[in-house]
Write a structure and sequence with these properties.
The protein has 208 residues and is mostly beta strands. The protein has one helix at 77-80; strands at residues 4-6, 13-16, 19-31, 34-40, 42-49, 52-59, 66-74, 87-92, 102-110, 114-122, 133-139, 143-148, 151-157, 170-178, 194-204.
Length: 208
């Protein structure tokens, strides 16, 4: 139930002085015969991998109805579908007053139906639109751990057999959605355009 069209236009995704900017714009835009009132961008990595440390340094948008995310999807998504492919949400934020200071990290999988488990992290002062922050996970054959600015806030044991999704290749996605069932729609307080600024995305892998 999201309200945006994702486009490949430089108005929605561009690089300025080494910073990737994903911009959500309030504008009427028609794609494949369907008109929506917002545009944004969704970028996928061209590679997939199993295990490692993954991090993004980013400054997030704010305002009611914005939904920035940095996440991973199982590389077999096209053949098995969701949630059987597995999903790791490294960072999600649903914007709005009293919510712009909190991000979430969540795993989704299939165990006779959709299952999920996660936690959240809140800033003690300010919001995530004020400055850049580092959102990361450490993923090995035993656990997935989530961090904000190096502070751990979520861990899950992925050794049980029903979590086999998380021992295969995943690819990376970053996007800013507008509206949807979780954040709800923009309202009179929402300011557009809103932008997620990305300094870098890094994946570290190596032998122990």
């Amino acid at each position: 139930s999201e309200l945006q069209h994702y486009t490949n236009r430089i108005e929605n995704a561009s690089i300025d002085n080494g910073i990737l900017k994903i911009a959500t714009i309030k504008e009427s835009y028609t794609d494949q015969g369907q008109t929506k009132e917002y545009t944004s961008a969704r970028l996928n990595s061209k590679f997939a991998f199993t295990y490692g440390k993954v991090e993004i340094r980013a400054k997030l948008p704010s305002s009611q109805g914005t939904w920035p995310a940095f996440w991973m999807l199982g590389a077999n998504f096209s053949s098995v579908g969701w949630p059987t492919c597995g999903e790791v949400d490294i960072m999600e934020m649903v914007g709005g007053t009293g919510k712009d200071n909190r991000v979430y990290s969540t795993l989704h999988w299939d165990n006779g139906g959709h299952q999920e488990y996660g936690s959240s992290y809140s800033l003690s002062t300010g919001i995530f639109a004020d400055d850049f922050h580092v959102f990361s996970i450490e993923w090995d054959e035993n656990k997935i751990r989530s961090y904000v600015d190096g502070n751990p806030f979520f861990v899950i044991d992925i050794t049980p057999a029903f979590l086999s999704e998380f021992h295969q290749n995943f690819f990376l996605i970053m996007n800013v959605a507008v509206g949807g069932n979780w954040p709800g729609s923009p309202n009179a307080s929402t300011v557009f355009p809103q932008t997620m600024q990305v300094d870098y995305v890094r994946v570290y892998q190596g032998s122990k």
